[in-house]
Amino acid sequence: MRLARPGRRSLLLVGALAALSLLAYRQGDLRATAAAVGLPLQFPSQAGTLVVSELARGLEQPWSLAFLPDGSLLVSERPGRLRLVSREGRIGAPISGVPAVHARGQGGLLDVALMPDFSASGGVCFSYAEPRGEDASATAVACGRLDRATASLRELRVIYRQEPALADSDNHYGSRLAFAPDGTLFVTLGERYSGREQAQTLDNGLGKVVRLRPDGGIPADNPFVGRAGVRPEIWSYGHRNPQGAAIHPQTGALWITEHGPKGGDELNRVLPGRNYGWPVITYGREYSGLKVGDGLSQKEGMEQPQHYWVPSIATSGLAFYTADRIPAWKGSAFVASLKFGQLARLSLDGDKVVAEERLLEGLNRRLRDVRQGPDGALYLLTDETNGAILRLDLLKP
């Protein structure tokens, strides 16, 4: 393991770092010590030496980030705050107008996405665990206009509410948002853990991906429109807890990552009307170690993942890399890992995953989101009480 050179930092700081590094080396936590004093870190990769630097720190359990046209960032914090972060890393005060959230378990303020016409409208959408009374909650999506002059959300309205709300679980909200090239909005919905059997039925919003118009209306070409007893917003079903979503830059198709149980995290290409199998098929097992259902991993009429992980890496954010800044990465998919604090890079040949590279081993941070920045670097969120925005780039000679 090797630290980046401290540049113009004082000799006193360098000496202190050396002492801390020796202690940390003995304790197996050298990288964490370097991060504590704000120095960039270096990691090997197939593309060359990577440099991780800290853009900002002091966010409480940040869940999602979105880049504004001027390069600043909009970041959600799970307890229920939305903040602007400048390009230089200055964290702004909470933006007013965010509705109350159910900030328990895995719930809270979750994903945030800019509307395709943001430059003209200032439109922003976000997903959250919505309190529904008597301790019940469910995923909801609200959209409004970001007024930067007053640091507030204007004209806010809820465009979608998952049904049914459940009171016996605070887990598996899903909640990633992705705008398709045609302007429609995909929303990933978890099965809330206790409602997993309903992921296979079409009269509810549990364990589904839904497709909406930005105003909350239902697109006429959704696969189940007009079918009796089926919710018309459903795009696909049989999902467990999809917490990553991105649009493939060449095909325009939605891809998602979803948590498996004990093993069996998945990367899926999501096609209209398809059944992705949970809880009938999975490559994982129950947390007890017992098989899930009949222990099947394949069944006719149910989709296979593009890639899966055993053991689980606790997949979260997903991004496709399209920039020229790091040519070796172009066309790759990046998957954030909560469990091992790693970043998985998947090489693709069309829609087929042909190789996986694990990056940032030893960083020891829970990575909640990954996004490509306007400068071509990757930006990561750490899901921690004192969470950070990290910038990942290639070390230039």
TrEMBL record:
Signal peptide feature range: none
PANTHER family in alphabetical order: ALDOSE SUGAR DEHYDROGENASE YLII (PTHR19328:SF75), HEDGEHOG-INTERACTING PROTEIN (PTHR19328)
Domain Glucose/Sorbosone dehydrogenase: residue ranges: 59-391
Chain segments annotated as coiled-coil in the UniProt record: none
Name of the protein described by the UniProt record: PQQ-dependent sugar dehydrogenase
InterPro entries: 6-blade_b-propeller_TolB-like, Glc/Sorbosone_DH, Quinoprot_gluc/sorb_DH_b-prop
Organism name: Stagnimonas aquatica
